[in-house]
Specification:
Layout: E1 2-4, H1 18-27, E2 30-39, H2 44-61, E3 65-72, H3 80-89, E4 94-98, H4 110-116, E5 122-124, H5 131-140, E6 143-147, H6 156-166, E7 170-173, H7 185-194, H8 202-217
Parallel strand pairs: 1-2, 2-3, 3-4, 4-5, 5-6, 6-7
Helix pairs in contact: 1-2, 4-5, 5-6
The structure holds zinc ion (2 copies).
């Protein structure tokens, strides 16, 4: 079963509606998808209001668990703790932060603010992750992302090495903006092995860590996952 805690709909810069994105993920064999549109102070409530309603409805009908979320993106690092708290209060089940990827001028200090903020679940594409930030992520239980997205993925090898050395938990996310970006089982394995994740760690990153994040954000949901996701 595929888990993916980082995707985008047209509520930010993705191409599909949230519902179509979820449907496509279900057909691709996903068991869980979080839709985490880019958000800042102004659009956070609006994005979550729409995503909550869409996820609620499709969860009643389709064998996939869809989670409303946000990716706090290019916001001043000092605002991250408060925005993450507001996102949680507005119904975000997954709060991600757009980390210091090497392909964009993300404000320095974003990674630190994310790993230290109580309400942040995932630090996405952390770029040249500092070992001290990896250690703080490990201590607080913030998940660190290996990115399936072109560009952000340039530093995946560094992220894997630094996170493993610190004992921080890793996730693989697609960061999909279009249907062709969604994960497959083979692609997920290839990205992780290509980042030099030891093969023995694959079940941890692809199954155990996602289940543990899910259990934290939505207790009891792991037991209710669709037994047989995929085309119906
Ligand atoms: Zn991002
Ligand atoms: Zn993203």
């Amino acid at each position: 079963m595929l888990f993916d805690f980082h995707t985008h709909s047209f509520l930010s810069d993705g191409v599909l509606s949230p519902v179509e994105l979820i449907r496509r993920a279900q057909v691709a064999g996903y068991g869980v998808i979080a839709v985490t549109d880019h958000a800042g102070p102004g659009n956070l409530a609006h994005v979550l209001d729409q995503l909550r309603r869409d996820c609620e409805e499709v969860n009643r009908h389709w064998p996939i668990l869809a989670l409303p979320g946000v990716e706090l993106t290019h916001v001043p690092p000092a605002t991250i703790p408060d925005l993450a708290r507001r996102a949680r209060a507005a119904g975000a089940l997954v709060v991600a932060v757009h980390g210091e990827t090497v392909v964009e001028p993300v404000p320095p200090g974003t990674n630190r603010a994310a790993v230290d903020s109580e309400d942040v679940d995932v630090l996405a594409h952390p770029g040249l992750l500092d070992p001290a930030d990896a250690a703080r992520a490990a201590a607080r239980g913030c998940f660190l992302e290996v990115s399936g997205r072109r560009g952000h993925a340039f530093t995946n090898g560094h992220v894997v090495r630094t996170a493993l050395a610190a004992g921080a938990r890793l996730l693989l996310d697609s960061d999909a903006h279009a249907p062709g970006d969604l994960l497959s089982e083979a692609f997920a394995r290839h990205v992780l092995l290509g980042a030099a994740l030891p093969e023995g760690e694959l079940p941890t990153v692809l199954e155990a860590n996602p289940r543990s994040l899910l259990e934290r954000v939505l207790p009891g949901s792991v037991d209710r996952l669709p037994a047989d996701p995929g085309r119906r």
